[in-house]
Amino acid sequence: MGYINAFVVGGLICLAGQLLMDVAKLPSARVLIIFVTAGVILTAIGVYEPLVKIGGAGATIPLPGFGYSLAKGAFKGVEENGLIGAFFGGVEATSGGITAAIVFGYLMAIIFNPKTKP
User: Fold this and answer.
1) Is 116 a domain residue?
2) What is the CB-side half-sphere exposure of residue 99 using CA atoms within 13 A?
3) Can you state the angle between helices 48-55 and 2-22, rounded to 10 degrees?
4) Domain assignment of residue 36, given as a range
5) Does residue 118 form part of some domain?
6) Could you tell me if 73 and 90 are in contact, meaning their C-beta atoms sit under 8 angstroms apart?
7) Which pLDDT tens digit goes with each residue over 29-68?
């Protein structure tokens, strides 16, 4: 049942993003910003946590999940180090994913010949 829940939750998040691009004619960069910011805000008000418990990876892997991870890391940083922890807690919580994106992007650029779009 967990796979189905993840598929449904992740699919609904992706459907929302596709609707924002197709119906509202928003560029993908704006949708990215909206989703990450929405993940942070929904986590701060306590709405995203139940969605993560239901959807699992379907809620944590898409872009709102990155905002969720940033917010959870900032909350943890504040608990451990006070207000200054809000500034580095989110980055610390997401550093593994950020590092993986940079390393794998670099490796793909080495293996394949990237070209700029005209």
Assistant:
1) no
2) 6
3) 130
4) 2-111
5) no
6) yes
7) 999 999 999 999 999 999 999 999 999 999 999 999 999 9
* Residue 117 belongs to a domain: no
Q: What per-residue confidence (pLDDT) applies to 118?
A: 72
CA Rg value for the chain: 16
Q: Which two tokens stand for residue 38?
A: 């929405």
Q: By C-alpha distance, which of 94, 74, 70 is closest to 82?
A: 74
The answer as to whether 77 is a domain residue is yes
C-alpha 110/C-alpha 9 separation (Å) is 35
Asked if residue 64 lies in contact with residue 42, where contact means CB atoms within 8 angstroms, the answer is: yes
Sequence-distant contacts of 109-118: CB under 8 A, at least 24 apart: none
Q: Token pair for residue 104?
A: 């794998």
> How many domains are contained in the chain?
1
Residue 117 has pLDDT above 80, yes or no: no
End-to-end CA distance of the chain: give it in Å, rounded. Answer: 46
Which token pair is 34? 């909206």
**Measured at the alpha carbon of residue 53, what is the angle toward residues 15 and 1, in degrees to the nearest 5?**
75
